[in-house]
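Record 1 of the preview.
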Amino acid sequence: MQPASDLDPERTGPIPTDPLLPLARPTVFERLRLWLQTRPVVGGLWHWLAPTLVTLLAAVLRLFNLGHPHALVFDETYYAKDAWTLSQLGYESKWPDGADEAFLSGDTMGFLTDGSFVVHPPLGKWLIALGYGIFGADTAWGWRFAAALAGTAAVLVLILIARRLTGSTVWACIAGLLLAVDGLGIVLGRVALLDGFLMLFVLLAFWFVLIDHDRMQARIALAASGDDPPTWGPVMWARPWILAAGAALGAATAVKWSGLYVLAALGIYLVVTDSLARRRAGIRRWLPDAALRQGPATFLLFVPVAALVYLTTWTGWLVTPGGYDRGSDANPFLALWNYHQAIYNFHVGLTSGHSYASPAWQWPLLLRPTSMYWQKTDAGVDECDMAGGCVQAISSIPNPLIWYAGVAAIVFLAVRLIWPGAGRSRDWRVAFVLTGVAATYVPWLLYPERTIFQFYTIVIVPFLILALVLSLRRIAGPSDAPTDRRTSGQGAVAAFLLVAVAVSVFWYPLWTAIEVPYEFWRLHNWMFSWI
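->
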């Protein structure tokens, strides 16, 4: 395990020094650590208070003026109305022409009873419908509130993941802060699309697998701790966190089918980590032991619960007669299978053009973010007179600094994982993060002709941030580095964070449809393709 940085206030023991060097003056972060160590009550409060404050910041950025604009932004025209009919009928139904205007004016009961062909499972829309139960359907708060809660919860889960990976509350809060202020995280936490819910369930699954990791490693090491290395290791059935991860990915798949890719990737990850743990423990037949003995047990813990959760979310469609294609077979489960075949054919054949479509190869370069909302008021309105009018915009562009730095961090960590260097071992934490990146990005490269959008990367963003945090931790320097090295490294990290927050302040109006002068909006078009 790599030594923790001096940014870790929970480290204990004296500050290590090199006897060949003059006694170093403690850095600011070292003084903070020592102060917390001498005040255990304050230090204990720090571990939960700091994550709470970061989570509250995320909530404020997502909930502030959430009802604006009172419009069906981008695909809210589908999901907000589908969520409403789902709550009223148990299935998504059709709407007549002009339904958007009527819905926005408060006439929400104009839907038809004929089932509508929808191409995503119902869980995300059921979650959106929870907001209707609190605020009603006559305000945008009703259809956006659940997305804001999911986006806020995702920040907290990312903090918990980062704390387990780094052993540091400070670095965990840095990870949470970067997601809290990131533009794509803010936008998908303020509009009623499905991808924010998908991100939350994927993060929960990775958190549960991370909790299982330490327990699994310890149990294998204990089973092989005798003098004579065993031929076979234990087959572990008592792994409740794998059950929880399977349930989370069943929920992710019930939001969007892309959750299946993560289910497959994490299944492979579990077998690989089991194999490596058995090899390190000295088990002689570690590979067949993990693949042929533990592998089936892990599968039975992981996959059936995911399938059960997924199927459960279709209950409304199964128990009501009006859903799309519900009458295709007398057996409701066969009818559901027929419906799934139609959905699959739609997805694989989706090649219709869209002005904001962005194939996956463009995503790392951030070439075509999605403009979800844009309204211009002509000159002659208040303070915008001299600037050619006012603009209200919602763009799915992430914080550019966080995004590009995160992409560079992924490349750096991938190289270090493949070629760790002489005398260095591969870091399992890097493998864990890169598994998340691969599971949420690589599958989209298989569909270069399919109409997809840049905002799908919201599921990638948390892992991009984790990669960035692991890289910033290296820049900050190990605790036994010379003082000058630590001071410069920690200063560079602090400067990066300050600039990243400043960039988010600059972009926040264009993530939340705050009215700004037209020329201010133009200042954000750093590439022609961002318009």
